[in-house]
Design a protein that fits this description.
Layout lengths: L1 E20 L9 E11 L5 E4 L6 E7 L3 E13 L2 E4 L14 H4 L14 H8 L5 H15 L1 E2 L10 H7 L1 E2 L1 H14 L4 E8 L7 E9 L2 E5 L10 E7 L8 E18 L16 E4 L1
Parallel strand pairs: 7-8
Antiparallel strand pairs: 1-4, 1-5, 1-13, 2-5, 3-4, 6-14, 9-10, 9-12, 10-11
Helix pairs in contact: 3-5, 4-5
Length: 282
């Protein structure tokens, strides 16, 4: 499927400030960028940095103080995701068989304190038979027990906070899902992307779990079709994949995000947690 994505971020910059943006579509065998453009106003020479997390790409640039600044990105991206029946995702890869890259996503991180959630994870999901079943149950539990409410959390909110307060946004839902997976010795990683059908339009956060030797996509918010994402970045949590990191003094004044699919064959798929549910690997 081919998606067209667009984002425009505007800032008031008060002092000389270095920005690191993560707004470009990542490159992988299943995600091919057909065309793209990146524009800054005023023009500023930007440096692209390729991250180690799932093909993530970062833009670093420095903006003078006492100015207004805009960065605009648009791209056409072809997505060729894999669908895998859950019967083939029944097992958790043993820790002693994990590669270094997968093992990296087993440990607690800044926003995903999995070590604090082991008792709850074991009680609620430990008896579920399969690895896919466990993560699907986690996804369903978050959806049913945490209220989605914009503006109720901030950049310091962690998975433990979300579990305690039972309210959050997509970022918080993803962090809680990741933490509960890791508490069950299932590697899990943060996923940011452009999302088809998200209302209001915005960047979207979800997570992937490493099951049966595959990274499988999950979205506890159920706000968008699981086959309607264009991946930007992966990371241990939002600290690794923030849309904009600001080193200096600046404030956001405007943000526009779009994700459209003009392919007539596109049929949105939604997570159902049934026996016929298939896992998606981006």
């Amino acid at each position: 499927m081919t998606f067209e994505i667009f984002s425009e971020l505007q800032y008031q910059v008060y002092l000389p400030t270095t920005f690191i943006f993560s707004i470009q579509a990542s490159r992988s065998n299943s995600q091919v960028i057909i065309e793209e453009s990146l524009v800054t106003e005023p023009f500023i020479t930007a440096e692209e940095i390729i991250g180690s997390e799932g093909g993530s790409r970062f833009i670093r640039l420095k903006v003078n103080g006492n100015s207004r600044f805009t960065i605009r990105y648009q791209a056409k991206v072809d997505i060729d995701y894999n669908t895998i029946h859950q019967r083939n995702l029944s097992y958790t890869v043993p820790v002693n068989k994990l590669d270094e890259d997968e093992m990296h996503y087993l440990f607690p991180s800044r926003y995903c304190q999995s070590d604090k959630l082991q008792k709850l994870a074991s009680k609620e999901f430990g008896s579920v038979d399969t690895a896919y079943g466990k993560v699907a149950a986690i996804t369903e539990w978050i959806y049913n027990n945490v209220e989605y409410n914009s503006g109720t959390t901030n950049s310091s909110t962690s998975a433990y906070d979300t579990l305690t307060e039972r309210v959050g946004v997509c970022r918080d839902f993803a962090h809680l899902g990741i933490a509960l997976c890791r508490a069950l010795t299932i590697p899990a990683r943060y996923f940011t992307g452009y999302a088809y059908g998200l209302n209001p339009p915005d960047f979207h956060a979800c997570f992937e779990a490493y099951i049966g030797g595959e990274w499988i996509f999950f979205d506890p918010t159920k706000l968008v079709p699981v086959n309607g994402l264009v991946k930007i970045a992966n990371g241990r949590d939002a600290a690794d994949a923030s849309v904009a990191s600001i080193f200096g003094r600046a404030s956001s004044t405007s943000m526009t995000v779009k994700c459209e699919c003009y392919d007539p064959q596109f049929k949105p798929l939604y997570f159902t947690n049934t026996e016929n549910q298939k896992g998606l690997s981006y």
